[in-house]
Automatic annotation (TrEMBL):
Belongs to the enoyl-CoA hydratase/isomerase family. In the N-terminal section; belongs to the enoyl-CoA hydratase/isomerase family. GO terms for biological process: fatty acid beta-oxidation. CDD domains: crotonase-like. This is 3-hydroxyacyl-CoA dehydrogenase. InterPro entries: 3-OHacyl-CoA_DH_NAD-bd, 3HC_DH_C, 6-PGluconate_DH-like_C_sf, ClpP/crotonase-like_dom_sf, Enoyl-CoA_hyd/isom_CS, Enoyl-CoA_hydra/iso, NAD(P)-bd_dom_sf. Residues 291-467 form the 3-hydroxyacyl-CoA dehydrogenase NAD binding domain. It catalyses: a (3S)-3-hydroxyacyl-CoA + NAD(+) = a 3-oxoacyl-CoA + NADH + H(+). The keyword Cell inner membrane does not apply. Keywords: Fatty acid metabolism, Isomerase, Lipid degradation, Lipid metabolism, Lyase, Multifunctional enzyme, NAD, Oxidoreductase, Peroxisome. Pathway: Lipid metabolism; fatty acid beta-oxidation. It comes from Cribrihabitans marinus. It is found in: Peroxisome.
Length: 698
């Protein structure tokens, strides 16, 4: 027995209480304690065993402190088999969450009862693996193949009611887990209920596993773990239980050794590390009980919606009554979406859209706001005027935030008498849906203001990343580089449609030109005009064919035509033939003879441009760590999660080979393809980007 397991005897029932806060993770001490508890219960003559968790949950999964380390005995599959094989009647009582290994332990018991608020699930595919302690063999036997495939490949959690209907649970009862578990175990003993090992139940009915494998692989855009899990469930249908367990372990081991598992584990830990900044140790954020939002367009309405859903009263400022009414309509539409999805009740909808939302047309209405977020047109002079007004109208200590995507936050802050209160909060559209929040720190931003930004991000359910000031910050600066690379390839012989397909093949949901159509081509057009007005370097390649599209009024999806054509009667977007006519004209104008590009070359250049610029961003301190880049690209730019982010991908692919390719590309364009100093430094020292994620001495 270990301290992580409390043993007690209640009549004929031995009670094993898992006591390993905060989430009763199934670390070695818990596994040792459970095995010892089973031994003791059998040796002392108990007739039944109850397993439950203390504190807030049943075991909620594996111990993340053991990730990446050699496994230690007793291994979880062996423990689950030990529990199931007991001659005693074994019951689990679930409260909180039984996820991953926690649910596998519960499935190894003979009966399962839960509180009404309990949730269960097998989310292992999110970490690049599959349930490896019998989950793919036992769950199909109690819930059927279809339900097991759904739960395992989607990684979704289900509530107690659904789990009961699926056969995962036997009963739901109100009360403390220990008490309902004891009552259930005693009732089973009183009625002479038999042991009921799941492994001895009949094999589940099969489905078309080949078709399901293909569908899951396609849905996951190449992520292997959900598809491989299909094969493990197939084994539950086609093999005896012990052989099915062996097949599950074989597939689990294959996934453990994959690059995708490395990428997903990296993403998991990077998300937990991204908000841990030494500069904020001991810094108390300012209190934010209400916020103001300036601008009620798509972005401003989305920010206001996110704040309302997080329980923050919002005052939204527009310049005219007509614009104010339109802003209210957008916010109410967003809230109606939350209502339809069951995220909020009708009563809460009415409260949020009524008393918690105030629409105003005067800056004076913002005088009591603790934090104000500006979301107006992306023009430096407009934003400076707004901040001068905020400086005059907002109370002392109010945080003044800009949602700018590119502009110089130091210049914006200089328009106020309190630059220490100014911060960038760069949301991504739609702001009430997208998880990423870039927190941009200007030269004079006070530490408690930075802490306030991170506290707000947490309250809004965002993944917040610290960024320094430069054109585009982290994400948009890197985007500009790999998008420029794509444009260069188009001029040199590729097509936008081939590039989109190659990028989707890598695992992105959309290619860069599909994304542009979705966002609106006018956004990129405005950015290009701004950069040209500031003065382009004579060595830079300036691509203009997309300007011709915009001049003709083609802005993508919102106008029905951009790089693709959209509209009623079309099964999907079709390539716009006008695009290649414009490209051909620009090639002729610039004397470019097009050549063929393979998909492999397209992807190699695209990723090299992304990683090279990301290395500059880290080297200049705009991003403090490579993991900040990875989290930004994962949550804001559709980078495939199973590849871990561009920096992790580069580490796994090999920095030396990547640098060699970049130097090769530089022979044709030494301005764009100048290698980042940090990349050269790491290769020279035989190090990786990941070495920069852990401070020296940790």
């Amino acid at each position: 027995m270990t301290e992580a397991i409390r043993y007690e005897r209640v009549g004929d029932i031995a009670v094993l209480a898992v006591d390993n806060p905060p989430v009763n993770a199934l670390g070695r001490d818990v596994r040792v304690g459970l095995a010892a508890g089973m031994d003791r219960a059998e040796a002392e003559g108990a007739r039944a065993v109850l397993i439950h968790g203390t504190g807030r949950t049943f075991p909620a999964g594996a111990d993340i402190r053991e990730f990446g380390k050699p496994p230690t005995e007793p291994f979880l599959p062996d423990l689950c088999n030990r529990i199931e094989a007991s001659p005693l009647l074994v019951v689990s009582a679930i409260h909180g969450t039984a996820l991953g290994g926690g649910l596998e332990v519960a499935l190894s018991t003979h009966y399962r009862i839960a509180t009404p608020s309990a949730k269960v699930g097998l989310p292992e595919v999110n970490l690049g693996i599959l349930p490896g302690a019998g989950g793919t063999q036992r769950l199909p036997r109690v819930a059927g193949s279809e339900a097991a495939l759904d739960l395992i490949t989607s990684a979704r959690h289900v509530g107690a009611e659904e789990a009961l209907k699926l056969g995962i649970l036997d009963r739901i009862a109100e009360g403390e887990a220990r008490e309902i578990g004891l009552a259930h175990a005693q009732a089973l003993l009183d009625e002479g209920a038999p042991r009921r090992p799941v492994g001895e139940m009949p094999a589940p009915e099969p489905v078309d596993f080949d078709a399901r494998y293909d569908a899951v692989l396609k849905k996951g855009r190449g992520q292997l773990s959900p598809a491989v899990a299909v094969r493990a469930v197939q084994a539950a249908c086609e093999l005896p239980f012990e052989q099915g367990m062996a097949r599950e372990r074989e597939l689990f081991t294959e996934l453990m050794q994959s690059d995708q598992r490395q990428g997903l584990i990296h993403a998991f830990f990077a998300e937990r590390a991204v908000g841990k900044l030494p500069e904020l140790d001991g810094v108390t954020p300012r209190e934010v009980a209400s916020i103001g939002v300036i601008g009620g367009g798509t972005m401003g309405a989305g920010i206001a919606t996110a704040a309302l859903l997080a329980g923050l009263p919002v005052t939204l400022l527009e310049m005219t009554d007509k614009a104010a009414a339109a802003a209210r309509g957008r916010i109410e539409h967003n809230l109606e979406g939350a209502l339809k999805r069951g995220k909020i009740s009708k009563a809460r909808f009415e409260r949020l859209a009524g008393q918690d939302l105030r629409i105003a047309t005067s800056y004076a209405a913002l005088s009591g706001s603790d934090l104000v977020i500006e979301a107006v047109f992306e023009d430096i002079e407009v934003k400076k005027q707004v901040f001068a007004q905020l400086d005059a109208s907002c109370k002392p200590g109010a945080v003044l935030a800009s949602n700018t995507s590119y502009l110089d936050l130091n210049e914006i802050a200089a328009a106020t008498s309190r630059p220490q209160d100014v911060i960038g909060l760069h949301f991504f559209s739609p702001a009430h849906v997208m998880k990423l929040l870039e927190i941009v720190v200007a030269d004079r931003t006070a530490p408690e203001v930075v802490a306030t930004g991170f506290a707000l991000g947490k309250r809004l359910g965002k993944v917040s990343v610290r960024a320094g000031v430069c054109d585009g910050f982290i994400g948009n600066r890197i985007l500009a580089a790999y998008r420029a690379c794509a444009e260069h390839m188009v001029l040199d012989g590729a097509t936008p449609f081939q590039i989109d397909a190659a990028v989707r093949g890598f695992g992105f949901a959309m290619g860069p030109y599909e994304v542009s159509d979705l966002a609106g081509l006018d956004i990129g057009w405005a950015s290009r005009k701004r950069k040209r007005a500031a003065g382009l370097d004579p060595k830079a390649r300036d691509v203009t064919y997309a300007d011709r599209l915009c001049e003709a009024g083609h802005f993508g999806r919102k106008t029905g035509k951009g790089y693709y054509i959209y509209g009623p009667g079309k099964s999907g977007a079709e390539p716009n033939p006008e695009v290649m006519e414009l490209v051909a004209a620009e090639r002729a104008e610039k004397g470019i003879t097009p050549r063929e590009f393979t998909d492999q070359e397209i992807l190699r250049r695209y990723m090299a441009a992304m990683v090279n610029e990301a290395a500059r961003v880290v080297g200049e301190g705009i991003a403090r760590r490579p993991l900040d880049v990875d989290v930004t690209l994962l949550h804001g730019y559709g980078f495939p999660r199973y590849r871990g982010g561009p920096m992790k991908w580069a580490d796994m692919d090999g920095l030396d080979g990547l640098l060699e390719d970049i130097r090769g590309y530089a022979r044709e364009d030494d301005f764009f393809w100048s290698p980042a100093p940090l990349l050269e430094e790491l290769v020279a020292e035989g190090r990786k980007f990941d070495d920069l994620n852990t401070p020296a001495g940790d």
